[in-house]
Amino acid sequence: MGMYVLLGLAAVVVILALKGFQIIPQSETRIVERLGRYDRTLSSGINYVWPIIDRTREIDVRSVQNVNGHMYVYVRKTDRIDLREQVYDFPKQNVITKDNVVTEINALLYFQIMDPLKAVYEIDNLPNAIEKLTQTTLRNIIGELELDESLTSRDTINSKLRSVLDDATNKWGVKVNRVELQDITPPNSVRDAMEQQMQAERKRRADILNAEGEKQSAILKSEGEKQSQINTASAEKESQILRAEGEAQAKILQAEAEAAAIEKITRAIAGTNSDPASYLLATKYIESLKEMTSGKDNKTVYLPYEATAVLGSMAGIKEMFEKGKK
């Protein structure tokens, strides 16, 4: 009998001794209490905890479960303290802005336990404390802003929220790395009003762009017409100059031709008593009489008032011709 008792005690001792060995994964730790008082913080690797007199202290951790699109949050106990960065996805909550608009907001909180001893002994139910602190701080910050500011100042809200939470959770051994607002959802009536305002603003911008386009088109059209008129006037001016130059050249040629004719007539009647001027005057009279008597229904006979001068000129012409025959 004594042998069996000794074997049983030895087996119990071996089991307890083996149970005291604990392997701590990387980025995790545990708090060990000896006889109810803090003893040490276990590091990663193999550690030994004396059975019966030593025990690991449990801590509350937050867990989230998504069922059919609904997020369920529950808190459980564990003696493993995660030292990695953790994220809390808080459910939507109603906050009131400065202009009394009830808005739904949900946020993401990224934090990390830096001092496990403070996280265990300085606060009870750390996840719940962080959640409530985040909600109240978010309400205070949003309550100082109007709806439009809260919609357009997410970075400012995130910075203020992170700063306040980091200061408040420092005594808990927690460091808040960043806070992100996921959604800011105003009421349906406010969203409809904002959509109408946005449509009106877009329509106003479109009208302004159309007006500017029409204005620019009118300016370009007037400039084109002006340039066309300038080009037309310039072309007409050049045409007039060319026509005037042509007429002047024609008159010069006509004058030169008449001068040459007068010179030839002068040489032709040289040695006679005829006057070249009388000859030219006679030819002009004859041409005028021809024009006056032209026409098939003309039955009027015209005689020049200075008929004697005309006859004298014609006599001179006859004399000139007779001299030419000789």
Rg from C-alpha positions? Answer: 60 Å
Helical segment count: 8
CATH topology of the domain at 58-186: Tetrahydropterin Synthase, Chain A
Distance N to C terminus:
192 Å
SSE sequence, one letter per element: HEEEEEEEEEEEHHHHEHHH
- CATH architectural designation of the domain at 58-186: 2-Layer Sandwich
Return residue spans where pLDDT drops below 50 for at least 5 consecutive residues. none
Q: What's the story with the biggest beta sheet? A: 4 strands, antiparallel
The pLDDT mean sits at 79
How much beta, percentage-wise? 15-25%
Key terms:
single chain; 326 residues; alpha+beta; Tetrahydropterin Synthase, Chain A; four-stranded antiparallel beta sheet; 8 helices; 56% helix; rod-shaped
Q: What do these coordinates show?
A:
This protein has helices at 2-19, 116-121, 126-143, 147-152, 154-169, 188-268, 276-292, 307-325; strands spanning 21-24, 28-34, 37-42, 45-48, 54-57, 59-67, 70-78, 81-82, 86-89, 93-96, 102-113, 174-185. By secondary structure, it is α+β, with helices and mostly antiparallel strands. Among the domains are: 16-56, no CATH class; 58-186, Tetrahydropterin Synthase, Chain A (2-Layer Sandwich); 274-326, no CATH class. Strands 2, 3, 5 and 8 form a four-stranded antiparallel beta sheet that branches. Strands 9, 10, 11 and 12 form a four-stranded antiparallel beta sheet that branches. The chain has a two-stranded antiparallel ribbon with strand order 1-4. Helix 3 crosses helix 5 and helix 7 crosses helix 8 (307-325).
